[in-house]
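Researcher: I'm comparing several assemblies side by side, and this is the next one on my list. It has 529 residues spread over two chains. Same procedure as the others: predict the full complex and return the structure.
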Amino acid sequence: MASPAAAPHRDTDVLLSVCGVSMTFPDGTHALDDVTLDVRQGEFVTIVGPSGCGKSTVLRIASGLLAGATGAWELADDNLGYVFQDATLLPWRTVQRNVELFCELHGVPAKERTERASEAIDLVGLGGFEQSYPRRLSGGMLMRASLARSLVLHPKLFFFDEPFGALDEITRERLNEELLRLFLLERFGALFITHSISEAVFLSTRVLVMSSRPGRIVGEYEVPFAYPRSDDLRFEPEFAELCGRISHALRDAHR
Amino acid sequence: MAPSARRRPLETAGPVGVFALFIGFWYFMSYVGMSEGRRFLVPAPHVVLNRSFFGIGSAAETTPAVRSTMFKGLLLSAQVAAVGLLIAILLGMALAVLMSRARWIERSLYPYAVALQAIPVLAFVPLIGSFFDFNFRSRVIVCVIIALFPIIANTLFGLVSVDAGMHDLFTLHGASGRDRLWRLQFPAALPSIFTGLRISAGLSVIGAIVGDFFFRQGDAGIGRLIDVYRARNQTPEMFGAVILSALLGIAVFWLFGLLSRRAIGRWHETTGQR
């Protein structure tokens, strides 16, 4: 993918490397300052930070949706899964046809397209809703359909831009578990954005803390809990302790 | 659902009741509102229908000729409206797609679309008549000019107001301009395209009938018949011709409502059940 200069490290299992990326918008907003991070195969990296700190901007720059940044970044593979906060399903297509969309854009033959879509729909637990239109689905189901749409191409790297931010607590926690199940099954690398600390800790192998405007990585936390993780993890003292440390770091960064 | 089941009788009774009130008001105006000597100005509904279409009793001699003239006129106007609308749809959507491709094209062409909307086209009827003729072709031209703008404006609006997140999806997957147009922009624009179609369909009927009214030469459509019957003091026939014009307009509007529900009703909110 387009980047002004090759990023420095070239490990084979590095899926994304971002090195010294800064971004100032044309209106003068200094959004990012010297952001450096990488995501390796099998890693689940989460950026936590308050709303408007530029977390999403990192994803938009790295994926090529946003031009004008300085620094270096490199995606190992063009096949990138990208899940937005809005499900962005096309309302005139059924779930099945929505999930087939990317295959259509990449010229996958119709028969294979149908098979792969059905497979992905089953994988996210939406079996039976293939012929439903998005307006008939709940927020959680829309997000599942959105996940299935990206899974169809089996990307090695996923970007998640606050995908569960608009969902209620119960649905969010259930989808967190589902996402981890998919993560273990598909072994993709993930770069996840959220403003929920417990969500970040529950999902990730590594949590990055970002300060607000200009966005800067101010802390990095390894999450030691083994996968598969069960919902009970949220009630372990170690879990609460780590959440507490990250919470303090966030507060220090925004003082 | 229970609420809709309870509402169903009213959904029939309401329109029937309003229609009955309308007919009642018409009779009232004819028999109470008008004196004996002026009653010919507002002939009662049954007189209008009999003199224009049924021809029972004293109207038996004149009605068949009147009826055949009227239906010929209606057919002519309907053809003008249909051809005019079809051309307006094709031309309008093509222009809108073109304008949606580049900002400079929109800035160069849109003012003329607005001008078409703003100028009193009917005032140009004599001009168009002298350029071409006073028959089918010129009437279609008037019809196209009147019906074009809502199609351009609504199609363009629909094509350019697609959700940015959906555009991002297509960008991420390297979609071609053609994929973007046909798989994203065009389907997303359908609801507003149909809004434009319904407005333009009504306008094309108005363009055909009122244009006909203004041409005053060539074959008589239903519009000119209204004027002819007025000039000859044949008020029942004039009312009959007005009713046919109205029915044409209603039929076209209903047809496009139906098409719209068929095309987008399954996924679009506003065309669904209330």
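Model: For your comparison table: Residues 169-186 of chain A form the longest helix (18 residues).
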